[in-house]
Amino acid sequence: ENYKAEIIEIVISQVTPRSSDELLTIDGKKLLKDELMQDINNVINEAAASNSVIAKNNIKSIVFTTFIIK
User: Fold this and answer.
1) Are 4 and 43 in contact (CB under 8 A)?
2) DSSP secondary structure, 37-53, as one string
3) What CA–CA distance (Å, rounded) separates 11 from 16?
4) Torsional sign, CA 66, 38, 9, 29
5) Cα 48 from Cα 10, distance rounded (Å)
6) pTM
7) How far apart are CA 35 and CA 13, in angstroms?
8) Dihedral (C-alpha) 62, 63, 68, 70: value to the nearest 10 degrees?
9) DSSP 3-state assignment of 20?
10) Which DSSP symbol is given to 69?
């Protein structure tokens, strides 16, 4: 919860510059997932450095349940 705002910012900054054509492809979505996982895990790993309760590289996968492109 402490890092929610930072993670939301990561998602917004990763999605915003991408074109709809890119996000409509399987490879485009996979690339987005991979980059989101890496960036979010970076935030988690920073938190884990000062809190032993938090596991490093905690995010193993990202699933898009709804994907709306305008």
Assistant:
1) no
2) HHHHHHHHHHHHHH-TT
3) 8
4) negative
5) 18
6) 0.83
7) 11
8) 30
9) helix
10) -
**Residue found under tokens 């993670």:** 7
- Tell me the residue length of the chain: 70
pLDDT in tens, 13-32: 999 999 999 999 999 999 99
| CA 23/CA 2 separation, integer angstroms | 29
The SS3 of residue 12 is helix
Tokens 């920073």 map to which residue? Answer: 46
Q: In this structure, which amino acid lies at residue 12?
A: I
- Looking at residue 70, what is its pLDDT? 76
Burial 34-58 (b: 16+ CB within 10 A, else e): eebeebbbeebeebbeeeeeeeeee
